[in-house]
Amino acid sequence: MAFPWIRMAILSGGLMGMGYALMKATAPTPEQTYAAMAPDLRKKVDANRTARLAQEQELKRLIEAQACCSSVYVLSTTAHP
Length: 81
Prior knowledge:
By secondary structure, the chain is mainly alpha-helical.
């Protein structure tokens, strides 16, 4: 008798589905986690978030400035035969 591949696949998928449903039902959302934090931890999280956003904006500004200058450089180098 051959191994019951179809039955095994259905049972494995069902087990994984049950695990995923259990995780979604019991794990808190990021908003719930933030609301449950102590006020001093919230201040640290807010400070880290603010610093990260400032760093991302600075990086975006540098990338845009570099893209602007590199396109000018490419145009000036290709203009000479």
